[in-house]
């Protein structure tokens, strides 16, 4: 299996450019098509949220302001995409992503869709092998957080959360965050292509992190069936937040991908 179609939702944030660069790195590894989509807010969605007590003129003014802001944002995103495409002349720009199948090498396309970002991104992702999304930032708007949540839980497809800065490498040293749950099993299955090409794979586990399900020896034996040798290493949460210990253990391993 290889990742042939990648989806990148673009919102115009600073993290979006890093996600675009990361997605291109992935596309080069798998010789894939990179489809960028920007979800433009539909002004008609504003009316039901306006609430009672507003006149028709006030609602129309809100819709007009939303349309202007949405248009300006879409323009900035398209300009960012055009600059990115121009900076990589070896990547073929496809006006229609369906025609990219006949073009050799890495291809890229752009599309603007009107609607609710969380709905559009989750639904569109179902037709792609992977979605590459920007790293969530604390000061981002709520819609971006909603979109990330939707693509993680409603797309049914693998999701790669890009780092804040473009990494030097990706997928050469892979960490498996294993706790025996169905979610971790799904992550392992989705990451098998990465692990097949990795130089080293490490299974991270902890008693504090373990759920009801197979332990690290079980997933290690499973990976052997796929001709993947992995070492199982326990980690100790540094605080009550297990995630901090997990990230620290991945950093100690020099991981450039964690599933």
Commentary on this structure:
The protein is of the alpha/beta class and 259 residues long. Helices cover 41% and strands 18% of the residues. The protein has eight helices and ten strands. The chain has helices at residues 14-30, 56-86, 117-125, 142-154, 182-190, 192-197, 216-225, 242-253; strands spanning 5-9, 33-40, 92-93, 107-114, 130-133, 159-161, 173-177, 200-205, 231-234, 257-258. The chain has a six-stranded parallel sheet with strand order 3-4-2-1-5-6, sandwiched between helices. α3 runs parallel beside α4. It is globular. The model has no long low-confidence stretch (mean pLDDT 86).
Could you give a short account of the major beta sheet? 6 strands, parallel
The number of helical segments is 8
Radius of gyration, in angstroms, nearest whole number? 21 Å
- Shape descriptor reads globular
Into which percent range does the helicity of residues fall? 40-55%
Q: Give the amount of beta strand, in percent.
A: 15-25%
Beta strand count: 10
Written as H for each helix and E for each strand, in order along the chain, the element string is: EHEHEEHEHEEHHEHEHE
Amino-to-carboxy terminus distance: 17 Å
Poorly predicted regions: none
For the biggest β-sheet, the strand order reads 3-4-2-1-5-6
Give the overall pLDDT as a whole number: 86
The chain-level structural class is: alpha/beta
Q: Give the oligomer, counting copies of the same chain as homo and different chains as hetero.
A: single chain
């Amino acid at each position: 299996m290889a990742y042939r179609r990648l989806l990148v939702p673009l919102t115009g944030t600073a993290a979006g450019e890093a996600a675009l660069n990361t997605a291109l790195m992935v596309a080069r590894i798998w010789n894939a098509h990179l489809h960028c989509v920007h979800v433009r807010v539909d002004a008609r969605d504003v009316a039901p949220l306006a609430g009672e007590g507003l006149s028709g003129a006030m609602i129309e003014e809100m819709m007009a302001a939303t349309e202007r802001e949405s248009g300006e944002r879409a323009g900035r995103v398209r300009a960012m995409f055009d600059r990115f495409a121009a900076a990589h002349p070896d990547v073929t720009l496809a006006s229609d992503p369906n025609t990219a199948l006949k073009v050799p090498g890495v291809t890229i396309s752009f599309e603007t869709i009107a609607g609710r970002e969380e709905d559009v991104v989750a639904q569109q992702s179902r037709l792609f092998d992977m979605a590459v999304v920007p790293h969530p930032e604390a000061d981002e708007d709520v819609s971006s957080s909603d979109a990330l949540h939707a693509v993680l839980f409603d797309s049914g497809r693998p999701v790669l959360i890009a780092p804040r800065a473009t990494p030097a490498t990706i997928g050469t040293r892979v960490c498996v965050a294993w706790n025996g749950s169905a979610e971790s099993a799904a992550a392992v299955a989705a990451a098998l292509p990465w692990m097949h090409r990795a130089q080293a794979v490490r299974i991270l586990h902890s008693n504090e992190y373990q759920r009801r399900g197979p332990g690290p020896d079980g997933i290690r034996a499973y990976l052997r069936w796929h001709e993947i040798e992995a070492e199982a290493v326990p980690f100790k949460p540094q605080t009550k937040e297990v995630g901090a210990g997990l990230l620290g253990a991945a950093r100690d391993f020099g991981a450039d991908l964690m599933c």
